[in-house]
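Help wanted!
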Amino acid sequence: MSLKNINVALIGNPNVGKTSVFNQLTGLNQQVGNYPGITVEKKIGFCKLPTNIKANILDLPGTYSLNASSIDESVVIELLLNKKDRLYPDVALVVTDVENLKRNLLLFTQIKDLEIPTILVINMADRMKHKGISLDIPYLEEHLKTKIALISSRKGYGIEELKKLIVTYKSISSEPCLNASSIDPEYFDGLRATFPNQLLYKLWLVITQDVNFLNLERKEIKNSYTKSHSDLKRLQQKETIKRYQFINDVLKQGLQVDASIAKDFRSVLDRILTHKIWGYVIFFVILFGIFQSIFVWSKVPMDFIDTTFASLSSLASQKLPAGVLTNLIAQGIIPGIGGILIFIPQIAFLFLFISILEESGYMSRVVFLMDKIMRKFGLSGKSVVPLISGTACAIPAIMATRNIENWKERLITILVTPFTTCSARLPVYAIIIALVIPDERLFGIINMQGLTLMLLYLLGFGMAIFSAYILNKILEIKGKTYFIVEMPNYKLPLFKNVAINVIEKTKAFIFGAGKIILAISIVLWFLASYGPGKQFKNAETIIIEKTKSNPLSKTALDNAIASQKLENSYIGIMGKAIEPAISPLGYDWKIGIAIISSFAAREVFVGTLATIYSVGDSDNENTIKNKMQAEINPETGAKIFNFASGISLLLFYAFAMQCASTLAITKKETNTWKWPLGQLIFMSGLAYLVALIAYQLLK
Amino acid sequence: MQTTIHSLKKGEKAIIKDFDIDAVPLKLLEMGCLPGNQVELLQIAPFGDPLYLNVNGSHVAIRIETARQIEVEKIKR
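Answered by r_m:
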């Protein structure tokens, strides 16, 4: 039996718990991808309904209305206007928050005008008692021409009833609940007469929005029904008033609030969290706590992963038959995979904290708190969100700039976000800090390594803010400056939401970056295991010849041969070629190779060093860290990873633009190569300069 | 001088009267910032800007430059 799955679309304002409803309906049965051609996240889940009906649940981006003001919101309209879309909903679920019902119903009345069967999902019903709210469900169902599901995605009740309701989708009304065209009868009558086969509200959306409409040419409608921008907006205002009048009338009867019962935590928390002193203190304490714990808590699992892979590697070379393939596995693939997996603890912690900050509603308070300050640097309070989530990854962070209304503020935010310390830098920082900063405590409490990490994060933020200041002075872009941010209710983050978010994001990172890292480590292994010319081929005889007068022990001889080979392998030759450019920064040719290979993605750095130091090394038991620790400059006898070169490397990675994906997303969001190229040249140039100065001063 | 949201004090409530439609974004209207609706100034951010409002039950923050455009009438207590 193969019945077609029914399509269910989840629509709703931001902050109504739409994602929790999605998670409740689908569990972990989700697919996250992108809409074709654009980088808006597309989430589809599957749900088994009663009577064996299966449903595709589509979680659409949150939107306040069908008047789109960002690319995320236009996705919603484009789907709802296109009956031929594979995912065009058989039934729409408009998710609302019982405490914000009035405003949430605005979107509901618009969806109803599209004549799609619509269920009204009233979420957070568990708070009704607490807030003194009571609803007259039959009355609301009658006047809103819909079926209502009263649920709490937090407490998990009402979900089964909702599923039963979805099954009855064929009998759910698709009638509009008000007649919005009465705001200008003459205009709409004309429109209706000209396009008798089209839905009036669709025409109106096409006229007012930048969306494409299938059978009709946009221009065709536009030409005959053009109005000035002001007139259109006036009409939109009238439409909004009309809808609110209707909603107010319905709610007067259908919703009662006993204000005397309502307890207000919000105002108390707001007073503290946005206080002119305590607000900032709390914000910085939270940030400090996050970065300390990322370093401290991930230490144990990271060390565990590191040693596990080192022993796996040696196990492979002992147990498998000797040969090229075994070498590839033991020295190329296993260290390569280890180099990816070692990021998991830190990345997961980072995503965990960020998703708690967002889920709890605290992030909006930070936006409010920081707006005035950020504006001095040409940024918006809303830039704080990309700058903080940029600590996970610059790509979603740059996408998160879409809700910044002012183009100049948005552009500057996009340009400076890659300076924030993303999770790909973490493994680089982690290993170098572990090598050159002592694991001691300052004043007995503050871990020095954690402190260094914190300073690097601050440096990234500082550079982002400073560059924004400069860009604000030189860029001449004028535009209207709007700033609206919703201040949602405080919520205790839901474990399930946070957990799914962390798992999804970490998985995406590991698989996305993992493929590149693995491929590069295999290529690297080949380049490091083979070389042109006699110097490579006859490495053994050359070394034996050289040491004839002073014979070495067996191990020392093996090591000398291995390093002779590496130096004359393809990769060795490449590294040697760029050595003159990087030796003033304190790096040798091996680090040079790692810098070249991490050009497209920073995190490859550690994996590269892992592979390079494993090739030809008979002793795989050693961890990467120990191998790096033991590296010595053959001429001076000094350690390669010393304080000066370590700091220089940290600074280089703090500033250098080494991420092809970020460049691609900047191109996508700004629609020109000008800005990503600017980022690349400016950031990498700055990195070189700063690393050079640091090494020369410290050495 | 006309009274606008900007001239409200913390905790004061007012009724929205009128505004220049081109100076106020549609999104704010959709949040309930419409003539006849009530607005309350809940918080003022450190350094005096932005303003945190309760407009018709929606909790939103806007900048002073927008708040200045929205004419209101204070509710006397």
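OP: Thanks! One thing I noticed: Chain B has a mean pLDDT of 89.
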